[in-house]
Amino acid sequence: MNIRRRLMSGTAVAAATALGLGALSACSSSGAAGDSSGKYDVVASFYPMAFLAERIGGSHVHVTSLTQPGQEPHDLEISARQTARLQESDAVLYLKGLQPSVDEAVAQSGIRTKIDAASLTTLREYGGETGDHPEGDDHGHGHEAGGGKDLHVWLDPVKYAEVAEGVGAAFAKADPDHAADYRKNTEALVGKLNDLGTRYETGLRNTRNKVFITTHASFGYLAERYGLTEEAINGLDPESEPSAARVKDLQQTAKADGVTTVFYETLVSDRTAKTLARDAHLRTDVLDPLEGITDTSRGSDYFQVMEANLKALQKALGAK
Questions:
Q1: Which helix (H) or strand (E) holds 248?
Q2: How many Å separate Cα 244 from the centre of its chain?
Q3: How far apart are CA 55 and CA 168, in angstroms?
Q4: For residues 237 and 16, what is the distance between their CA atoms, to the nearest angstrom?
Q5: For the chain, which has fewer Cβ within 10 Å, the N-terminal or C-terminal residue?
Q6: How far, in Å, CA of 317 to CA of 305, rounded?
Q7: Distance between the two ends of the chain, CA-based, in angstroms?
């Protein structure tokens, strides 16, 4: 598949925070791990993991998120208080490699059930067919020589469904008293994700062009799944600054490939995207990488925002 992602390495200063666990649960609003309600207590690293835990766990789980709504998850530095609460939980659901401070805390914890979503599906190397590999950055996206793995699996409904199946199996094994409900909830969620994937496939099948520009390289799996090409301004790090050569390259790409729109996202600055769009006489719009839900999100949950992303892509690509 033609995924031309000329990725740039970048360093960014992590925003150290001392935030407590953010409650992200329809089951409980206490936000405290070690919940006394008797529910299976799950700590999730950020929104896409918390969403899975809630949908699969249903009324049997108490879910808390280490990443606050509106906080850029790549920047998370968990506090001592959060680490202590993590130790009290029954299970942790995270995406190894995306948030190094979470990886470290999980590795040092004595939690019995550690569910790494990255191990539940196949991952691709950054660079795809181009053979380009990024150097490591401060957010743990790049690893030793050979480049880093693309961890944005939740933006491909099919891969996200694979992860959901693995999470459901892990919940059923760890909390067998409610295994039947976990399996039922998993089946329902996977069905909805597959339906979403079908809508993407149908909606993006016939478009005037296939290239779209984003703030950072988060839509590679989605592009590969539906025959599109993602060009990322900032590569791996959503808050790095692109080189002048990269900006010029994107301007030329936009002209050659009939790009109409530069997409920015909700949790990081839109300044570079809007500057590029202005200089290249292009429109701007939001393509949400769904790393968190805020008041400015185009929807209140994963499915609503993904539907909004589909509409934005259809408009930008000239869906017929």
A1: helix 244-257
A2: 28
A3: 10
A4: 17
A5: C
A6: 18
A7: 21
Given a contact cutoff of 8 angstroms between Cβ atoms, the answer to whether 312 and 285 are in contact is yes
**Cα–Cα distance measured from residue 112 to residue 316, given in angstroms and rounded to the nearest whole number:** 46
Please report, for residues 151, 240, 318, the alpha-carbon distance to residue 207 in angstroms, rounded to integers and kept in the order given.
Answer: 27, 31, 5
**E strand or H helix that includes residue 101:** helix 100-108
For residue 247, the model assigns a pLDDT of 84
Check if the beta carbon of residue 62 is closer than 8 Å to that of residue 35. yes
Residue 65: its H or E element = strand 61-65
Token couple for 183 = 């399996």
Q: Which of 243, 226, 248, 252 is nearest to 314 (CA)?
A: 226
Q: Give dist(CA 307, CA 288) in Å, integer.
A: 10
Structure tokens at 80: 């001592």
Q: How far apart, in whole angstroms, are the C-alpha atoms of residue 32 and residue 84? A: 11
Do residues 211 and 242 make contact, with C-beta atoms less than 8 angstroms apart? no
Asked if 39 contacts 27 with a C-beta cutoff of 8 angstroms, the reply is yes
CA 312, chain centre distance (Å): 18
Quote the tokens at residue 264. Answer: 């920015």
The residue count for the chain? 320
Tokens of 135: 């150097």
Contact predicate 230/212, CB 8 Å? yes
- Give every residue of the chain whose pLDDT is below 70, as ranges: 1-36, 126-147, 235-240
**Residue 116 and residue 119: Cα distance in Å, rounded?**
6
Rounded distance, CA 302 to CA 290, Å? 7
